[in-house]
Design a protein that fits this description.
alpha+beta, single chain, UbiD C-terminal domain-like, 23 strands, binds manganese (II) ion, 12 helices
């Protein structure tokens, strides 16, 4: 399964728009991507200075599109993600695939890498799925990292101290550089699997393959010891230096604010493989797609954890306004008045970066923020229903927190209806249904066009 096949499917659903006017990789394409957030997938066919290459953006830009990519409804989404991480499937390995159509010497300046924001350190690859193995070959890890272009053969990689960092430290301990495959232009299931964070040792390619019903194929890199999705558009083979570092940042992160400069390891690119006329996949940092990709796997983790402490979880939304990371809205069916507070505590432990949680009843739509505010307005009393936690480990990305120590304050809002008061007082008034009126409403809606939603 490839990005191309997914784009064809989306084109049939009229979810793709082709932009033929010339646009620059520096700010112009990011600006158009930003303006189309929540809408169709833009394909930029005329990239100034890069002949024969197209750029696609916002591929995983809406929740519904991710559901289509995984062939599930919104209701089935979390269970699909949870099942995939429990029923891991090793992908097949092939020796040739479209990505080997062109094999060439690295020149990063020939790739249409975007410069997104005014204050960014430079051009950044932001959609890359990076895979590497432990020195003894027993562990393979796949994750997404931002890469700053330093020159025609070198990148600086942001290594958050997680799994790839661990593999790099292991290689470094043996006096070696770490071989990596950097894949750009992959099916959304691969991006989603790479954005999830199963325990160290779990191979995210196996999760992606489970999500794709066994249709993920890998290819062994030509010059480094790493595997990449065989149906990727572009693969850079490289090595993370054991000792060379460069200044990385600033770059806008998930909060939409600039992340700080750091000294980070340098990647030497050794070989480049790509399809003929490849599609470069762009991803706008701090945009809706970034937030969705980061947030969705965490929503599944929260769903799973809260399901253990309350009778039923209806839905979870790590809202776009909350950066897809810091705010969760959870709807539950509660049995006792204490359930919502347990849900709050359980959500905080399932996703340690979470800062604010709102728990609502199942009749409130967690994706409709007006509805959520209505629940807070009519079902919440601050002296009874508010939970505040001080000096807790949180996100290092929140500029209002103690970013050095990642210490923050957290708040939970129980906006569920108290069981001690009569139910009627909290119920939403309804207007009786009428077939004739509904027909007219349908016609009106059709003439207005469907509003886009995340
Ligand atoms: Mn991992």
């Amino acid at each position: 399964m490839s990005l191309r096949e997914f784009l064809e499917e989306m084109e049939e659903r009229r979810e793709v728009i082709r932009i033929t006017e010339p646009l620059s990789t520096r700010f112009e394409i990011p600006l158009v991507m930003k303006s189309l957030e929540g809408g169709p997938i833009p394909i930029f066919e005329n990239v100034e200075g890069y002949e024969g290459v197209t750029i696609v953006g916002n591929v995983c830009g809406t929740r519904d599109r991710l559901c289509l990519a995984l062939n599930v409804s919104r209701e089935e989404l979390y269970n699909r993600l949870i099942d995939a991480s429990r029923n891991l499937k090793p992908p097949s390995v092939v020796s040739n695939s479209p990505v080997t159509e062109v094999i060439e010497e690295p020149d990063l300046r020939s790739i249409p890498i975007l410069t997104h924001y005014e204050g960014d350190a430079g051009a950044y690859i932001t959609s890359a799925v990076i895979s590497a193995k432990s020195p003894d070959g027993s562990v393979e890890n796949v994750s997404i990292h931002r890469l700053l272009v330093l020159d025609e053969r070198h990148l600086a990689i942001r290594l958050v101290p997680r799994h790839l960092y661990k593999l790099w430290s292991m290689a470094k301990g043996e006096g070696k550089d770490l071989d990596i495959a950097i894949a750009v232009g992959v099916h959304p299931a691969v991006s989603l699997a790479a954005a999830s964070s199963p325990p160290f040792g779990v191979n995210e390619f196996w999760i992606a393959n489970a999500l794709l019903d066994g249709k993920l194929r890998l290819i062994k890199c030509r010059k480094v010891d790493a595997y990449a999705p065989a149906d990727a558009e572009l693969v850079l083979e490289g090595r993370i230096s054991r000792d060379r570092e460069a200044t990385e940042g600033p770059l806008v992160d998930i909060t939409g604010t600039y992340d700080i400069k750091r000294s980070q390891p340098v990647v030497e690119v050794i070989n480049v493989m790509h399809r003929k006329g490849y599609i470069y996949q762009a991803l706008l940092p701090g945009g809706a797609e970034h937030r969705l990709l980061m947030g969705l796997p965490r929503e599944a983790a929260i769903y799973e954890a809260v399901s253990r402490v309350v009778p039923k979880v209806r839905a979870v939304n790590l809202s776009i306004g909350g950066c897809g990371w810091l705010h969760a809205i959870i709807s539950i069916e509660k049995q006792t008045d204490g359930d919502a507070k347990n849900a709050i505590l359980s959500a905080f432990s399932a996703h340690p970066s979470l800062k604010h949680v709102v728990v609502v009843d199942a009749d409130v739509d967690v994706f409709n923020l007006d509805d959520v505010e209505w629940a807070i307005a009519t079902r919440f009393q601050a002296d009874e229903d508010l939970v505040i936690l001080r000096n807790v480990r949180g996100s290092s990305l929140d500029p209002s927190a103690d970013q050095e120590r990642a210490i923050t304050s957290k708040m939970g809002i129980d906006a569920t209806r108290p069981l001690s008061k009569p139910r009627e007082g909290f119920e939403r008034a309804e207007i009786p249904r009428s077939g004739r009126a509904e027909d007219i409403i349908d016609k009106l809606m059709e003439s207005l066009g469907d509003p886009d939603s995340f």
